[in-house]
Amino acid sequence: MQTQINNLQWLIGGEAGFGIxxxxxxxxxxxxxxxxxxxxxxxYPSLIRGGHNSYQVDVRDHPMFSSVRPIDLLVxxxxxxxxxxxxxxxxxxxIVFDPDAKDTNxxxxxxxDIQLCSVPLTKLAREAGGTILxxxxxxxxxxxxxxxxxxxxxxxxxxxxxxxxGQKTVNENIHAAKAGYAYARDHLEPFPWKLERKHEAKKHIxxxxxxxxxxxxxxxxxxxxxxxxxxxxxxILTLLARHAEKTGMVVRHAEDEISVINEAIGASYAGVRxxxxxxxxxxxxxxxxxxxxxxxxxxxxxxxxxxxxxxxxLPTWTSQADLQFVLHAGQDELPRIVLAPGxxxxxxxxxxxxxxxxxxxxxxxxxLTDKFLGESQATIEPFTTDHLxxxxxxxxxxxxxxxNGLYDRYRITADGISPRTxxxxxxxxxxxxxxxxxxxxxxxxxxxxxxxxxxxxxKKLETARSDIPVPTLYGSAVADLTLVCWGSTKGPxxxxxxxxxxxGTTVNxxxxxxxxxxxxxxxxxxxxxxxxxxLLENNYSGQFAxxxxxxVGFQPEHxxxxxxxxxxxxxxxxxxxxxxxx
Length: 582
What we know:
Blueprint: E1 4-5, E2 7-15, H1 20-33, E3 37-43, E4 52-60, E5 71-76, H2 79-85, E6 89-97, E7 115-118, H3 121-127, H4 135-147, H5 151-162, H6 167-187, E8 193-194, E9 205-208, H7 209-220, E10 224-227, H8 234-242, H9 244-247, E11 250-253, H10 257-269, E12 274-278, H11 280-296, E13 300-306, H12 323-328, E14 337-339, H13 344-361, E15 364-370, H14 371-375, E16 377-380, H15 447-464, E17 472-474, E18 481-486, H16 490-502, E19 507-512, E20 514-516, H17 520-528, E21 533-537, H18 543-552, E22 558-561, H19 570-581
Parallel strand pairs: 1-8, 2-5, 5-6, 6-7, 10-11, 10-12, 12-13, 13-15, 14-15, 18-19, 18-21, 21-22
Antiparallel strand pairs: 2-4, 3-4, 3-16, 9-16, 14-20, 17-19
Helix pairs in contact: 1-5, 3-4, 3-6, 4-6, 5-6, 7-8, 7-13, 10-11, 16-19
């Protein structure tokens, strides 16, 4: 087999609680420090300890947007890793395993073109002064040796990872990595995959979608965040809490999701930018609060990190099945804006924009993400922020009294957006009322007032359509097939497009970040130019296809739906595209 340079799929698997995720992150960080690009994807069961964990790192010398199915080098720390991933090994792939492990049997590969890389992981870890827990570091060193990569990059990552635990721990891990590296170079056959350091590479960052959302909130000036831990949204809470003192943000771990949304509404009413994050089950408890925010016209950014349901469902897996839920949550009808970024970069900028939209339209703004986007990690260029602004909309710190001497907080306007102030401002006295109310917030149940106020609130959606950009088209302006997608399916779709291009098949990708309200005329114009469409969704019923049909009267010719809790792989999208074109 011809040597593959900087084109690798590496995966480590083992029992939960044995550092699988940390080890994978160190492998990825080592590659990024060498100027390479990575995309990381992790799978784990909903158990505190036990069960099978895996961490996959795809490495290239150019940007990529998703994981691929074949594995070139598998580090198997137990038998489950062999059983669960054996059918994914690419031709001539390698498997690093410990021959001394009692539960490891590689006989399944007998007669197959697989390179068995026997490394005494536990023995080398103990000889280095460590315990069985350090066999993953030995495996990292062995991987570097097999791939002929720069060992110094791994050692620098180990310094970063273990400095806080003291020099003794650092030294033990360095010895373990060097032992694995030396064993691979001295005892294992040459491997047909190789990693090469790019010495003049630009600086990049490796970032998860959840971390990008947290950074976007900080950039936007968010000063209040509330959350209740719920996978896969929890890391937004923990990251913001870790940096709360530095950023001046109040971060609250509330007693439940009902408190989460009500605390955030109160903070926003007081004038500070506020955000909450949850998943479907937690959001179910928040829906009455969504109605309160809509009726009192309080800005609020709500992150809903999707996972499969119903009920508890698959707590640690991915889904795009809460779109219709978010579009209709809350009593009666209220204006809302829904965004669904497709990668870590879009997570950052969409979060900044979500705060501006919430303030401008004084209404809830949703950021729909999911486990795949939130917890996968990609190599991207650092963010540029010079062009970003903070638009507080009609918020007025020097309010003007109405004719009746009171503040017309809910004044009927042509665009549906009323003047807004915060408590304590002279001349700003009004009632924030969850009942139907008149311009100053007093209860008014007359039919005439109800019609006027309902139309005023819903008018915001029509006004907002002018603020909503059209979906982004990637690839050729004209193609035989257009892959239509939203949110996290963007990455696999773009990678599938590039795979097909290498085979001489021209497809393009139409990706939606802004899902509601849709700019109907613009979207209709874009879709009209698509010759043939294949819509991709991680749900059972084609929820976005239904949304497009309802709002713009468009129905895709073909759909590819996945609802097993796993994200799309680019190769399965490419295969479906070819079958459609045939």
